[in-house]
Amino acid sequence: MIAIQSRDNPLVKRIHALSTSGRERRKTGLTVLDGAHLMAAALDAGIVFTQIVVSDTGLAREEHQALIARVGAQCPVACLPDPLFAHVSAVESPSGLLALMAMPALDVLPAMVNGSLIVLDAVQDAGNLGTLLRTASAAGIRLALLTEGCAQAWSPRVLRAGMGAHFQMQVLEHVDVETALAGYTGRIAATVLSADSQSLFALDLAGPTAWLFGAEGQGLSDSLKNLATTHVHIPMPGRLESLNVAAAAAICLFEQVRQNG
Amino acid sequence: MIAIQSRDNPLVKRIHALSTSGRERRKTGLTVLDGAHLMAAALDAGIVFTQIVVSDTGLAREEHQALIARVGAQCPVACLPDPLFAHVSAVESPSGLLALMAMPALDVLPAMVNGSLIVLDAVQDAGNLGTLLRTASAAGIRLALLTEGCAQAWSPRVLRAGMGAHFQMQVLEHVDVETALAGYTGRIAATVLSADSQSLFALDLAGPTAWLFGAEGQGLSDSLKNLATTHVHIPMPGRLESLNVAAAAAICLFEQVRQNG
């Protein structure tokens, strides 16, 4: 383990850049995992770390020591004073432990898309995007297709909100959804507010469904709306007829779980 | 309308303090609403603004001009250059329009708590707290009880995530939940991960329910867990058995909507 004290240290500069710049992540192919929980989920999925960084305070925690021991001697470990660790960390409440990992090579769309999946259209908020992946993964969904306008799926903030979902499902970015779903034989469902849509709770959700979720505010793009074979709304008895996109997705995906359980 | 150019202007200093300091909000009894959508929801609910602030760019938008016209001449309006507006705004992507309003006087617990409600225990994340209120309001819930450790319910970030929920339901803070629910005759349901709990989808949700939701990570406090008459889990077929608290609440509250719809 090496101890680093200075902001001018090249490793410190590199991690700071990876934490704060999507461009730097794309250029290097590396990203930053924050926290023992996320790191353990990555290790469980066979991910290899290229660097571990721990804060002085973080090093005192047994959970962190166990994780460092689990990774073993082949991965370099750097120890930073707490303020310097906060400087390199990408998240609001740094956990005191982080790791660098190579982002998965750009995944190729399966020749045939089948089974249930989610399509996320221009979801720019990192927290929402990560929560959507986490919820989908808990519901047993194994494939997420992200359109051009989405936040970077492997950014530290999306990873943190995903809580390990990235390692349990295939997440494809910059997807041309019309092409991807051209031969899809399941239902393609879009949530909309219009009353001429079907109630989620009246829908028979047997068989696979591709769920389309758009960014809040603007909603789904017209081309995706036209792709949908089913327009569905969530009945809202309250006076505030409005749901966060991640909440709406949770309701839809777990209605599917309920029906097929 | 007055134009302001300087960070040293007393009004600019005051709004910046209200946007960034919970202590300042408590001291003055004022809070900040960001954006036309939230301001319109407040006006619909009869809220009176004490000050409107608009950015140069924000002033050009028709939606903003209409809102300023709706409020009328009795509310002072200040116009700020965009960078100065960003300085006083509490949110990440300022909309270009904000208003000051008096926070509601500390509400008194109804003599008899009945009907369905949510109890939020030590939910510190502003986005989660606001989303929980928004989801509950959409589900027709009219009362939220917040324990001591929750984020300030009327902070600008919680208000923004709530998207108007605050004006549609009673939100009580610093609540002693054991006392509040002492005479409650409905079901008191806590979501837990343990398998000896009932599946949400096997539960009969007729009649009122008090839903207890805890902070992520630590979960519900023991005293609240003991208060629950029903322990419930959400079946998760995926390998990642983990949900964001706001996603879990959405699933529970809309299962109740489904059953009683």
Automatic annotation (TrEMBL), chains A, B:
Residue ranges of every copy of the tRNA/rRNA methyltransferase SpoU type domain listed in the record: 117-254
Keyword terms of this UniProt record: Methyltransferase, Transferase
Annotated SUPFAM superfamilies: alpha/beta knot, L30e-like
The keyword Methyltransferase appears for this protein: yes
Species this chain originates from: Denitromonas halophila
Any GO BP annotation: methylation
Domain MRM3-like substrate binding: 9-99
Protein family per UniProt: Belongs to the class IV-like SAM-binding methyltransferase superfamily. RNA methyltransferase TrmH family.
Classification via Pfam families: MRM3-like_sub_bind, SpoU_methylase
Protein name stated in the entry: RNA methyltransferase
Keyword set includes Transmembrane: no
GO molecular function annotations of the record: RNA binding; RNA methyltransferase activity
